[in-house]
User: Fold this.
Amino acid sequence: MKRETIIQNIKIRSGGDLLDFQDKSKNRIYFTINKTILLQIAKYLFNDAKARFSTASGVDTRKTIEILYHFAVDDIGLFISLRVILEKPSLEIESLLPLFKCAEWIEMEMHEMLGVNFKGHENPKHLLLKDDWPKENYPLRRDT
Amino acid sequence: MSRKIIPIGPYHPLQEEPEFFKLHVDGETVVDIDIELGYNHRLVEKISESKNFDQVAFMVERICGICSTSHPFAYVNAIDDLLGVKPPERALYIRTAIGELERIHSHLLWLGLAGHFLGYNTVWMWAWRYREPVLDIFERITGNRQNYGMMKPGGARRDIFEEDFPWIKKTLKELIPKLDMFKGAIMDDPVIRMRTEGVGVLTKEDARDYGLVGPTARASGVNIDIRRDDPYAAYDKVEWQVCTHEGGDVFSKAVVRILELYQSINIVIQCLDKMPKGPIDSGIKDIPPGEGIGRHEAPRGEVVHYIMADGGNSPARHKIRAPSFMNVASNKKAVIGETISDATIILAAVDPCYCCTERMAVVDYKTGKKMMDGQDLIRLSQEKTEKIKNKLGR
Amino acid sequence: MNFKLKALTKSIWVYHMSTGSCNNCDIEIIDMLTPRFDAERFGITLVGSVRHADAIPVTGSLNLKAVPRIKQVYEQAAKPCVVIAIGTCSCGQGIFKNGPNCPNPVDSLLPVDIYIPGCPPKPEAMIAGIMKLIEKLKGNITIPTA
Assistant:
């Protein structure tokens, strides 16, 4: 699939929920989307555009928490980042686990590092930190 | 048959991301696996926010010792992406050469340990012996056997001297006959084939579902390689091929790694031949606010670094994703339905951990009494090889 | 020198323990046993269980999750058993000193007998360190105290 086709399709599918689009370089593009359509766009990227889910980065920007979902379309070398902005303190977002299994660990990691809750992904266990790590103490938060 | 749990771990020293596996076994067959992480977690992403941009390159080097140039490589790619600059030509060739030398030593290391698990200790000793010349090259050009400190945002920290070129090339060319020997030993030996073929199969669909990267994905017939798909450094200026294999089993993973060794030697020699003269550093002063993503094909697969800068002296956010984070999860799929004696080699096949098996123990589920320890499990694996050997009359 | 200590100085068997390291020291420990360095000619060999070990080389920066495990492993070791801190991380936490997940140095938990610094120390340095340890146990070397 061509680069332009993917960009066009995401723009059409997201409609008014596309908040921002950044064409940074030949291989790096960033979309900022509303969190309501995340599942739909991720489904399109994974199933139709044959993108590979690479990882997700959670960033605390003090007032909000941004999550960037990184997808790689390997045959054209494109790296697509979907940015979703969550307003504090309601940090809840759809889990991508129903679409692909590789979302499991990264969502657990974001949950324990930043305190984001993933709907449809209930796993109270810690992934990286010790089991008796203090509750509500998220190491990568910047407001504490 | 009663169900039993085999804990493997928790800390296995030889890998970048240590896990604690709990194998649920029913008789001889593995029916389920739990994977627990965190015994090696050092919150590097947090520490990174307190270091300046130059120091971070050293710090990420110490995430993993085996692929100790992969993380700095991805990090400097991220900074270059953030700034939109291209480092001087010579620096790109130096980075490529270091990255590929590392792949050679890492794959040889894996090969040796895979041999150990299958009961071929000679393969272990030989592979590690022939790995030493590669470390000698590192010592000569970087000053250290591991942790090279060669990457720097906007360039390379140290030059490779022209007078070392003939010696490096000679040392690498001497390695090729040794690799031929390993290739023959693994491809033609019926015992190794019987132990590894059809064991721990991951299909193309599994590869997509689990987001596999690197040799683990390429062994399942997924044709991906960041070096070709998203060219960086000097990879688009040298001739080389991506090695894939269709089987998806342990054997395919070994074959892919051995074939990659030849490509890596080829790339290093080409880099030395084509390296232009000139500066090695572009002298970056300030990092403006912005974000950048750097990728690198480490020996185990794609490394992703995401850097967010706020105009200050250190990263505002530094997200690191190592290849094993994706590959290790696939053990859930690969190991189920196999026997315990094959579990060691399957868990080792994605190249996450090798020493872990020395800390394995079989515990009776009900009484919690220890029945076997790590050496018994390796012994089990080695006995199976012995049995096949006898059957074949070798 | 008592009998147990005398026996300890012959053919030291090591059980290698990582407390959250980057593998570099761990690879070099294994490297020490392979043909180039061949520590087995001094009787040094890796064992799979801590119960058989005479010495425990410790690497890494003591991760919080690993602390109870390490305590347990050390308690299982047959005494006398010497602890060797290998690498900058286990000697003095190194670059992870300010890390929230590894706040304690290794020697706050285990009684370290000898420190081999380096990032990572070369296998030659490790062999030299273990030889010095043997001399120390025999009482041939006196360690200056502060």
Observations:
- Strands of chain A lie at 18-25, 28-33, 52-60, 64-73, 78-87, 92-94, 117-119.
- The first strand of chain A starts at residue 18 and ends at 25.
- The two ends of chain A are 45 Å apart (CA to CA).
- The longest helix of chain A spans residues 3-14.
